[in-house]
């Protein structure tokens, strides 16, 4: 059985799509695109889709990942084009590779986020970032299903820097941009938590909600703070051993648990 | 000029529940260039997005209008109180979800009312849109506020808030209105708002409340309703679309990103119903029966599934098993989509039209969870009163077959408070459920079967034989339901296999007030809205006490009260608030049918027996359109 790994986006107004919403939309797109899906066994068969580490509702993303299992062989790029056309604009499928390695979820070690703070002067953002980075621990609170919960937002942050946007904006308002690299730990630290942390350490209170976008996910180079393409190993394996026929390729990557976590509960 | 308010809205969305419902961008939605269109419609289903989006009426009109050159239609839904508060704080107007334009910028603001419980939501939307609540305060700069849908067959309670109303099928009606508005605009809007409304009213198909005066008698009843300017017709007729195959809408059903109440490819397999159930307003006002052909259904399903990717097909109508070729339709579709795991559903199945072959076809590609039937009345006698000609033997035979074929759960729907009903009629529901379980255990050879009794209060509706009937008070409804519950729970042998679900009598009284109300009810609706009333169809938002308090404040000025509108029986000679709206039904025939009900005399279905002169076909120039066509649905060649 062929497995295909896809990278997709949540852009513009469709960033308000929740993960559950996306799952329904994606499964309908699979039907419209007539993708020959493999189905789970059981009384109500479901198409086999593994979602990994979905971005929170309301944040944009350029780098979401999932994996599908097919019942018949398909060319990844053709499939990508079809699926992209079947999804609404904003939910765009931007990359597709045949899975030839295990552990996509394991490779999603860290995320790069861009946080746009309209109405915040870059200098002010810079000072807040310094204060945050200088702290050993920054306790923040978040509401969870079990009530308010307190945890450290500093430890997971691999990198945080403030840059300014070019000052040729028509309205002349200040706008700071933060670039955040955060490790995927438990409990997960989200951009919102880092913003809470900036408020706690430096009283940074943006006048309007921040516009948050995930730019990348993948393996983290701790030294440079760069995050590398998690689909690269599959692409490299493809160059080394081009696919011959349906089923052959997957035979080499057996062994191990499901390559990506189940969609439930990751949002 | 009109501009999108999305930038302002976007800043509010992170603070509200389920923001996705406000952003639009659904698959198959349409955004046309504003400047290139000269007639622009904002269409609203006045409830939350999750209920409003799947509404077939709005979806059909949206597509019909957007197919027209130079015409655009966008959708708007009720916003939840969390967003409403933020919109008021930040001065963001009621917007369409398609291109987020202010509703006040459109030419026509059309609202579809399936239920009267959307009236307060209409006022919220008008106010958020910056449109004066009352039609008399509007100027040329405001849209024409137009109501449609089943509740519009008595638009009098909201007459003050409406510029106009249309009753009946909307597909052709919206095109006629578009033409008149377009011509008036092209001529430079001669005569202003008054003139365009006059032109609409002169068609005889658009009701403009302000052109009619209501005169009252000293005892509070209506003396007469008269046109107040010449050229306005005395009565306004409903629209009827003939030949459903000519109107295969929706062709491109909307597929939402947000979760909604129905997520399926719905095809209306016929419109109208002449079974003649006397409580059923839908059956009375949508006559005659017009079937979509088996091939027409097949094409709509095929195109619709391709366009949406839905995994379920709903074959909709008021009584779907009555389609002359339903067996062939179900078998044909089940064959065609067996590979694709597409489920079929058939809401509204009558006990006497059910057969096990059909049920087997429907569940071939999907689950065999439960069957639902609506005997509506517990005793043979009351079923004669309401003309629901289903015998207990029919029902027992049907459910026995179902339990014998592997179904484990049967749901039965009833009403409480039907005309002439006594405690005994309702208590017989328990006997029926007990007989169902006893037979079921015998046939299924298992005790693991269930029957759920679901019951709510009956609300008399306009344009039905029960329009004269007294509604049962909330207290009496609740007392009767409590007796039924005790009888079911008290049965040692079968009680635990019978589920009991009921709706208390209070919401029904408010629905009754709004259903059979007249123009004086407008003051109550406005007072409730101003007191914070919203989303009256939602248990967690509905407040009976608020409605009663507002009615007590406003109605005494007119010498009437809630009981006068609800539990009072009307006489033959009384002018009813909706008499000037012509559903085609002959009022004398309705009265005879009401007398037949009291005599427990039944009426047949005119599809299979001679015409019984309800009046609709000759009055409206329509005819029954049914099969069989004798055609078959062939499986499509699967190209994979």
UniProtKB/TrEMBL annotation, chain A:
NCBIfam families xrefs: sam_1_link_chp
Pfam families: DUF2344 (PF10105)
Biased composition (Polar residues): 246-267
Region annotation Disordered: where it falls in the sequence: 225-267
InterPro entries in alphabetical order: DUF2344
UniProt protein name: Radical SAM protein
């Amino acid at each position: 059985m062929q497995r295909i790994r896809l990278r997709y986006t949540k852009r513009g107004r469709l960033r308000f799509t929740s993960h559950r919403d996306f799952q329904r939309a994606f499964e309908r797109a699979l039907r419209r695109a007539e993708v020959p899906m493999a189905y789970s066994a059981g009384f109500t068969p479901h198409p086999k889709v593994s979602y990994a580490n979905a971005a929170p509702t309301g944040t944009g993303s350029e780098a979401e990942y999932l994996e599908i299992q097919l019942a018949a062989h398909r060319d990844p790029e053709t499939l990508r084009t079809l699926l992209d056309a079947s999804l609404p604009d904003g939910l765009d499928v931007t990359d597709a590779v045949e899975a030839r390695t295990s552990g996509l979820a394991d490779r999603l070690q860290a995320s790069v986020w861009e946080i746009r703070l309209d109405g915040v002067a870059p200098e002010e953002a810079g000072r807040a970032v310094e204060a945050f980075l200088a702290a050993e621990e920054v306790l923040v609170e978040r509401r969870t299903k079990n009530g308010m919960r307190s945890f450290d937002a500093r430890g997971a942050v691999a990198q945080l820097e403030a840059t300014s946007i070019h000052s040729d904006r028509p309205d002349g308002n200040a706008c700071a941009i933060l670039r955040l690299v955060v490790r995927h730990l438990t409990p997960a630290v989200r951009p919102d938590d880092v913003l809470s942390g900036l408020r706690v350490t430096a009283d940074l209170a943006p006048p309007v909600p921040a516009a948050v976008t995930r730019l990348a996910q993948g393996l983290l180079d701790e030294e440079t703070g760069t995050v590398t393409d998690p689909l690269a190993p599959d692409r490299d394996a493809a160059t080394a051993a081009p696919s011959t026929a349906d089923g052959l390729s997957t035979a080499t990557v057996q062994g191990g648990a499901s390559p990506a976590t189940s969609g439930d509960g990751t949002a | 000029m009109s501009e999108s308010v999305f930038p302002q809205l976007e800043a509010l969305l992170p603070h509200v529940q389920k923001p996705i419902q406000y952003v639009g961008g659904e698959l198959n939605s349409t955004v046309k260039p504003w400047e290139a269109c000269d007639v622009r419609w904002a269409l609203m289903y006045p409830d939350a997005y999750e209920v409003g989006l799947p509404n077939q009426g709005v979806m059909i009109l949206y597509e019909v209008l957007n197919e027209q050159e130079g015409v655009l239609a966008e959708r708007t839904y009720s916003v939840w109180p969390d967003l409403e508060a933020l919109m008021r704080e930040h001065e963001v107007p009621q917007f369409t979800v398609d291109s987020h334009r202010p509703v006040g910028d459109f030419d026509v603001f059309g609202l579809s009312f399936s239920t009267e419980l959307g009236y307060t939501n209409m006022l919220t939307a008008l106010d958020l849109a910056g449109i004066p609540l009352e039609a008399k305060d509007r100027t040329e700069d405001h849209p024409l506020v137009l109501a449609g849908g089943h509740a519009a067959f008595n638009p009098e309670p909201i007459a003050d808030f409406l510029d106009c109303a249309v009753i009946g099928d909307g597909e052709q009606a919206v095109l006629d209105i578009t033409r008149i508005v377009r011509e008036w605009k092209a001529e430079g809007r001669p005569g202003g708002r008054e003139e365009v409304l006059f032109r609409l009213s002169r068609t005889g198909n658009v009701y403009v409340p302000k052109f009619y005066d209501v005169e009252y008698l000293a005892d509070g009843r209506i003396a007469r309703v008269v046109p107040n300017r010449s050229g306005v017709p005395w009565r306004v007729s409903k629209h009827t679309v003939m030949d459903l195959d000519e109107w295969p809408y929706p062709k491109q059903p909307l597929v939402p990103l947000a979760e909604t109440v129905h997520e399926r490819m719905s095809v209306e397999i016929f419109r109208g119903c002449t079974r003649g159930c006397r409580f059923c307003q839908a059956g009375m006002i949508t006559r005659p029966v017009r079937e979509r052909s088996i091939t027409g259904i097949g094409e709509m399903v095929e195109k619709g599934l391709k366009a949406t990717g839905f995994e379920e097909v709903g074959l909709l109508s008021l009584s779907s098993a009555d389609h002359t070729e339903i067996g062939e339709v179900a078998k044909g579709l089940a064959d065609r989509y067996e590979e694709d795991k597409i489920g079929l559903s058939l809401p509204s199945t009558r006990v006497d039209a059910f057969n096990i072959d059909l049920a087997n076809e429907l569940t071939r590609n999907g689950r065999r969870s439960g069957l639902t039937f609506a005997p509506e009345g517990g005793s043979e006698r009351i079923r004669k009163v309401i003309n629901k000609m289903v015998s207990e033997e029919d029902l027992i035979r049907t459910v026995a077959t179902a339990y014998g074929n592997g179904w484990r759960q049967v749901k039965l729907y009833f009403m409480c408070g039907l005309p002439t009903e006594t405690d005994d009629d309702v208590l017989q529901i328990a006997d029926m459920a007990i007989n169902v379980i006893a037979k079921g255990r015998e046939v299924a050879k298992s005790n693991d079967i269930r029957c759920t009794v679901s019951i709510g209060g009956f609300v008399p509706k306009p344009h039905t034989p029960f329009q004269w009937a007294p509604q049962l008070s909330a207290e009496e409804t609740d007392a009767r339901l409590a007796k039924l519950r005790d009888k079911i729970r008290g049965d040692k042998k079968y009680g635990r296999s019978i589920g009991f679900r009921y709706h208390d009598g209070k919401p029904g009284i408010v629905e009754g007030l709004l259903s059979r109300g007249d123009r004086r009810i407008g003051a109550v609706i406005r007072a409730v809205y101003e007191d914070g009333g919203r989303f009256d169809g939602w248990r967690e938002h509905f407040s009976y006490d608020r409605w009663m308090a507002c009615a007590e404040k406003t109605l005494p000025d007119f010498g009437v009260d809630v009981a006068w509108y609800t539990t009072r029986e009307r006489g033959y000679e009384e002018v009813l608030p909706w008499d000037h709206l012509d559903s085609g039904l002959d009022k004398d025939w309705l009265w005879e049918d009401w007398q037949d009900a009291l005599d427990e005399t039944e009426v047949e279905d005119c599809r299979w027996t001679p015409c019984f002169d309800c009046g609709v076909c000759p009055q409206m120039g329509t005819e029954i359109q049914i099969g069989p066509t004798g055609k078959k649905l062939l499986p499509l060649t699967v190209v994979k």
